[in-house]
Design a protein that fits this description.
Radius of gyration: 23 Å
Helix content: 25-40%
Largest sheet: 7 strands, antiparallel
Shape: globular
Structural class: alpha+beta
Number of strands: 21
Strand order of the largest sheet: 1-20-19-15-14-11-10
Length: 565
């Protein structure tokens, strides 16, 4: 059975808002019900977890257009039925025309040092980096899927062509970006009515994007990477000041990476390697926590939250060393993941007071606006994939005639020359994505991930502590209130008990109450009897769909009518 300790004697200080799903044939969990349904449709059609994940991602590019699209980037962490783990890196990279001084920073230091004149690195054509999403999705399907690409794209085409109901979540995202969306004619045409954001319940039709997806269904990723669709996109971007050219699309390459791995209380933890900092820091923090007993201290006690806050500070202080494209920077992964280094850091933690573990550098404000899918099938194939166009609605423009919303990934580079994260042609963006797969005794136990920018890896770590140390169910673990700090104020999510918060204040923490930390986590738990549990939290429109049942018993058919003489 799944390793679950007895829950602590005192009840948990929160109630779950959603219900989990159970299945034996497959489990699909995404941050939109139509995307989860698209994945389930692929399983029903004879596909596997990879097919389901790719169909879900194409559908998310329609129903969560503010989060993900074919002109974005991301990571897919895959565990195949034969036990192999791979991380397919489709993160965006800087165009060939990009230079360290291609933007004018507003300041040399301080909070504005990463902002540029005219917001050129954040909004508009000049903020667009070379995309990798579409190539990553199609390649993953080609390598490990069972169904033709056209089948995987069809649900997305269907929803884009006939329209779908706008959720309250999408409506609020439109409203947040309204000033920028109104400034772009195509974005305004799709998402704005009478000067206001589309309301929850309104119908959104994306006919141009349906045609684009139809082209992809026929031509594959070549439509964008070398084909007419790509040439049209980059020609329009270039004519409006963009840096990306057709050769960037043609020359873009996916990177097949080995995951980083480590152990925590008998569990094997696998996550993405650099240029993602997520996998490294989840493991680093767990290594430090392994020398304490958070379960004994209890969930959300002042003492247990103090431990979490201190390891978060340590990880963030070290993040600069692990957040870089390994093709450009020698990342000290081995040291950061060593138990010896964890012991050194652990020894410096003061259980009686908060310490200052300030980061040594200023880092780009990584976008919290991302999406995640968790999918598994009965054969043992697992996909944990985090994908994004970076900020809400990416560059906040739409390429006319295509429905494509490009990324604004250039915002993740430091616009100042001579810095670790300065712009260089071909350099991959960094990320905190942490699509995580957990084994015990060589068997899958948990899959999880979430959007949330810098707050991703801290939230993933807390979910694992909730599962392993506090004995929570998967639903409880993904919904539990979170905290976050990068060395300054300690962000505390709504729902944390006042007694625990008072304990944090007494230990010297400066608290900042926030509505939520990170985004909508989803995940899967596995029982030894083959049952899979899927769960999604209240921070997004997450929906688990479990598939049970199966085909008829061999040689069973409808009973024939009795022959009459």
């Amino acid at each position: 059975m799944v390793d679950r300790r007895q829950h602590q004697a005192s009840p948990l200080p929160f109630e779950c808002e959603k219900q989990p799903a159970l299945g034996t044939q497959a489990m699909i969990v995404t941050n939109h019900p139509l995307a989860s349904a698209a994945g389930a449709e692929m399983i029903a059609a004879g596909g596997n977890a990879i097919d389901a994940a790719i169909a879900a991602l194409f559908t998310l590019s329609v129903v969560e257009p503010m989060m993900v699209g074919i002109f974005g980037g991301g990571l897919a962490h895959v565990r195949l039925a034969d036990g192999r783990h791979r991380v397919l890196d489709g993160l965006s990279c800087a165009p060939a025309a990009a230079a360290p001084d291609c933007y004018r920073p507003l300041a040399d230091a301080g909070p504005s040092s990463l902002d540029t004149e005219g917001r050129e690195n954040a909004v508009g054509p000049k903020s667009v980096a070379v995309p990798g999403n579409l190539l990553g999705w199609t390649e993953l399907a080609r390598r490990h899927g069972r169904l033709p690409l056209a089948d995987l794209v069809e649900p997305a085409i269907r929803h884009a062509r006939r329209g779908f109901r706008v959720t309250g979540y999408l409506s609020r995202c439109i409203d947040e970006c309204l000033a920028d969306l109104v400034a772009d004619p195509e974005m305004s045409r799709h998402f704005v009515r009478d000067g206001r954001a589309l309301a929850a319940g309104d119908r959104l039709v994306m006919a141009d994007y349906a045609e684009t997806l139809g082209t992809i269904a026929k031509e594959g990723a070549a439509a964008l990477h070398g084909g007419g669709l790509g040439r049209h996109a980059v020609d329009w971007l270039a004519s409006h000041g963009g840096l990306i050219g057709n050769e960037d699309l043609v020359r873009y390459r996916l990177v097949d990476r080995e995951p980083v791995s480590g152990s925590y209380r008998g569990h094997e933890i696998y996550g993405p390697p650099p240029p993602s900092a997520g996998g490294v820091h989840v493991l680093q923090m767990l290594n430090i926590l392994e020398g304490f007993d958070p379960g004994r201290l209890g969930f959300a006690s002042g003492e247990s939250m103090h431990l979490l806050a201190e390891v978060l500070k340590i990880a963030f202080a070290d993040r600069a060393a692990a957040t870089a494209d390994p093709a450009f920077v020698d990342v000290p992964v081995e040291r950061l993941l060593s138990k010896e280094y964890a012991a050194q850091r652990r020894a410096a933690i003061d259980l009686r007071r908060a310490r200052d573990w300030s980061p040594g550098v200023t880092l780009p404000p990584e976008s919290a606006n991302t999406t995640h899918v968790s999918v598994a099938d009965r054969d043992g194939n697992i996909v944990s994939s985090t994908q994004t166009i970076n900020s809400l609605f990416g560059a906040r423009i739409m390429i006319p005639g295509t429905g494509i919303i490009p990324n604004n990934y250039m915002y993740l580079f430091d616009p100042r020359p001579g810095k670790a994260l300065s712009i260089a042609p071909g350099k991959r963006v960094t990320t905190s994505m942490a699509p995580t797969i957990v084994l015990r005794d060589g068997k899958p136990r948990y899959v999880l991930g979430l959007p949330g920018g810098l707050r991703i890896f801290g939230s993933a770590m807390q979910a694992l502590v909730n599962l392993i140390d506090h004995g929570m169910s998967l639903q409880q673990a993904v919904e539990a209130p979170r905290l976050w700090t990068q060395g300054e104020q300690l962000e505390v999510e709504e729902g944390l008990p006042e007694a625990g918060l008072a304990g944090l204040r007494a230990l010297g923490h400066s608290l900042l109450p926030v509505p939520h930390v990170g985004g909508g986590m989803n995940g899967i738990a596995f029982d030894d009897d083959g049952t899979m549990t899927g769960a999604a939290c209240w921070r997004a429109d997450g929906t688990p769909i479990g598939i049970g049942g199966g085909m008829a018993r061999a040689n069973v058919r409808f009973w024939p009518e009795v022959a009459r003489a």
